[in-house]
Amino acid sequence: MKKLASSFLVVAAIALAGSSIGCSPTQRGAATGGAAGAGIGALVAGDGNRGTGALIGGAVGGLAGGAIGSNKEKKQMQQQQQYGQPAPGYYGPRY
Q1: Residues 32-48: b if buried by 16+ CB within 10 A, e if exposed
Q2: Which of 13, 27, 43, 55 measures 20 to 30 Å from 94, CA to CA?
Q3: What is the model's pLDDT at position 80?
Q4: Domain ranges in the chain?
Q5: What percent of the chain stands above pLDDT 90?
Q6: 3-state class of 87 per DSSP?
Q7: What is the model's pTM?
Q8: Where are the alpha helices (DSSP H) in the chain?
Q9: Rounded to an integer, what is the distance from CA 10 to the centroid of its chain?
Q10: What is the dihedral of CA 55, 59, 64, 67, to 10 degrees?
C-alpha cells in the first residue's frame, strides 16, 4: 500500500511539472518547486509521516519556486524595457 502511494505521488509530481507549459515563469517555478518539494518531503519524512512530509515540502517548495520565478520574470521585464522591446502580450505599433 505504501509503495502504491509513493508511486502515485511521483507520477502526480511529474504530471504537475509537465503541465506548466504556457505559464509565466512565476507559475512555472511554483509548480516545479511544489512538485519537487512534495517528492523530497515524502522521501525525507518517516514511514508514518509521508503524507505530511509531502504536504509541507510541497508548500515550501511552491513558495520558494514562486519567489524564484517571480524574480526571473522581473529581470526579464527589466531587460525588455532596457533594450526597447515591447512588453510580452503587446502587439500594437512600436513608436
Answers
A1: bbbbbbbbbbbeebeee
A2: 27
A3: 77
A4: 2-82
A5: 22
A6: coil
A7: 0.65
A8: 2-18, 25-44, 50-82
A9: 15
A10: 160
